[in-house]
Design brief:
Elements lengths: L1 H25 L3 H18 L9 H16 L7 H26 L3 H36 L10 H25 L1 H18 L2 H19 L1 H17 L4 H15 L4 H17 L21 E7 L2 E6 L8 H26 L9 H19 L6 H18 L17
Antiparallel strand pairs: 1-2
Length: 416
């Protein structure tokens, strides 16, 4: 059994080390990294006599309900084949998450320390690669006589900044425990500087939200967890109010930002999606229907820029907001199921009074991920679901206690 666990641990070490470098060099292929790790762990378990998993039963039930409902919506989805394909993808993601979490939970204290070293080493490697790409982009800009950086403003590095903003928190936790608080502060500051240099606003905003969440959770883990639940509820409640809230906000952005195209376009997309949501509020338009919603290809007015009227597509591919997309496609039923899963995840965050750093880090990471999901990518994108799954694995390995030795199992202990 010890040899079995040690072999699994090697796969987790590799995943932790390669996560950010892969996100820098080929972010869209993060799912390949995650799948390779899962297959490796399953292969080891099969060789040693079976695939034994001990997942959280309630979480598994909720996942099954979500998968079942997502597949059911294919009966009225605008593209049934795509809905079925996406529901299969979600099923595979859920299975992979169960495997990764189960493997991470079985790491003992020494293995968790090694996991932390590999995670820090891989993250530092990825940050250095990111810095090199930024400098390379600056050199190209100077050579071309441009006034701003050009080479680093690529879609892949936009995704890279997302991974950096998420990894900063567990890596800072490891640095604090290993090298002290100054090292943790250095990780946070360096990550923030790279995010600023990379330019995309969503990861930087998410990073700032994570910092606020960390401070609140450091003061009170319970308050931090309640804040996450309130943020989720607020994100749902605001959807019916977008017709009232968006116009004055658009006017404010147009008057105060030099070129607010992307910010205003995002708000207009949300307005359009909200209107479509309330045409089928209970059961939605069907899984992955966002890209085919009637009117999504229309050019809509955004704001006046000098003598020109700025326009944009009503909804390119997806709403760039996880809860709006889920409500649009899966209806309020899907929102309730996702809300139940999110609430359970928040409830499982430890609230140990003797160690404020770990729950604060987990809450900060969750807040950061939630903010990105609400402002950024399509929720069913393979690389994004894989990123979230790997972050859950990292959170378990770095932010929770290892299993008690066999002789101590069943004995009462401190809340961790």
């Amino acid at each position: 059994m010890q040899n079995h666990n040690r072999q699994e641990a090697y796969f987790l070490y590799a995943l932790s080390f390669l996560f950010l470098p892969v996100a820098v060099l080929a972010t869209a292929q993060v799912w390949v990294l995650a799948v390779s790790g899962v297959l490796g762990i399953l292969a080891i378990r099969a060789v040693h006599g079976g695939i034994a998993l001990k997942p959280n039963g309630l979480l598994v039930v909720m996942m099954m309900m979500l998968i079942g409902w997502a597949a059911t919506t294919s009966f009225w989805a605008m593209s049934p084949d795509r809905a079925i394909q996406t529901s299969i993808r979600i099923s595979l993601v859920c299975i992979s998450l169960i495997v990764l979490v189960d493997a991470a939970k079985k790491l003992d204290q020494k293995q968790r320390e090694k996991f932390g070293y590999w995670l820090v080493g891989g993250t530092v490697t990825g940050l250095v690669l990111t810095g090199i790409l930024i400098l390379w982009g600056g050199a190209i800009s100077v050579w071309l006589g441009e006034n701003r950086l050009t080479g680093h403003e690529l879609a892949d590095l936009n995704r890279t900044s997302t991974v950096i903003s998420l990894l900063a928190w567990p890596v800072a936790l490891i640095a604090a425990k290993t090298y002290g608080r100054l090292a943790a502060a250095a990780v946070i500051v360096f990550s923030a500087l790279l995010l600023f240099a990379l330019a995309p606003s969503t990861p930087l905003v998410a990073f700032a939200v994570g910092l606020v969440a960390f401070i609140i959770a450091w003061i009170s883990p319970g308050l931090g967890k309640r804040g996450l639940l309130l943020a989720f509820a607020g994100a749902v409640i605001i959807v019916p109010l977008l017709d009232v809230l968006a116009p004055p906000l658009i006017d404010f952005l147009a008057a105060n930002l030099p070129v607010p195209h992307s910010e205003i376009h995002r708000l207009v997309i949300w307005q359009f999606a909200a209107e479509r949501i309330f045409e089928h509020p209970l059961v939605g338009w069907g899984l992955d229907a966002s890209r085919a919603i009637p009117g999504n290809n229309e050019e809509v007015y955004l704001f006046q820029f000098g003598a020109n009227a700025e326009t944009g597509q009503a909804m390119p591919l997806h709403p760039h907001n996880a809860l709006i997309q889920i409500w649009l496609e899966l209806g309020i039923v899907g929102v309730i199921l996702i809300g139940a899963i999110f609430s359970l995840i928040v409830a499982l965050i430890p609230s140990a009074l003797h160690d404020r750093a770990r729950p604060a880090t987990l809450i900060a990471t969750t807040a950061c991920a939630f903010t990105i999901a609400q402002l950024g990518f399509g929720i069913w994108q393979g690389w994004w679901m894989a990123t979230l799954g790997l972050m859950v694995m990292i959170a378990i390995a770095t932010g929770t206690n290892p299993p008690a030795p066999a002789g101590r199992q069943g004995r009462p202990g401190r809340n961790d």
